[in-house]
Amino acid sequence: MSSNGWPNHGRGEHQVPRLDSVSRVSVPVPPPVAPYTVPGGASVPPRPAAAPRPVPTGVPEVVVRTRAELEALRADAEQELAATEETWRMMWLDPRHRGQALSGILNAVRWLLGEREPAPISSEVDDGPLPATRSIGRERIHAEDRVFGRAWPELPEWYAAGVLRALEWSFIQERDRPISAQ
Questions:
Q1: CA atoms of 2 and 127, how far apart (whole Å)
Q2: Which residues have C-beta within 8 Å of that of residue 94, sequence separation ≥ 6?
Q3: CA gap 133, 139 in Å, rounded
Q4: pTM score > 0.85 for this model?
């Protein structure tokens, strides 16, 4: 039995070095550096801001609605978010989750118009100014997966329902408009 109470199991006593017997390495600390100043006391000019992305003028290839129709839906969604209960136009959703669904519609339409870079469900970013056909189809599947509880549990179901209705309306001619026209 060793001095610490643990059995030796046939091994010899082994010593743990004491801390004061371990050699220490000295690492030099650099002196503090003064902040950089431009000679002559001039201030450092600010970096030029990135040029704003040009807003595209068309719509993605798979979309059957015109840009004007998408812009009208975007304006209606913004107006509905600010509306009172007496002036609501949408009938397909639960009023308790109205804000989530309208946010989904608004984010989907802004993404289709090229005004928003990240996709509304997956937050993926396309290379071009407008989402590609495969990206629109993928976002539709992601929204459907969330609505039916197969994936994306961190997103509200009604948000995904708004995204789904907006995307399907944009590329399926027979679908009803997510927000009824006035």
A1: 67
A2: 158
A3: 10
A4: no
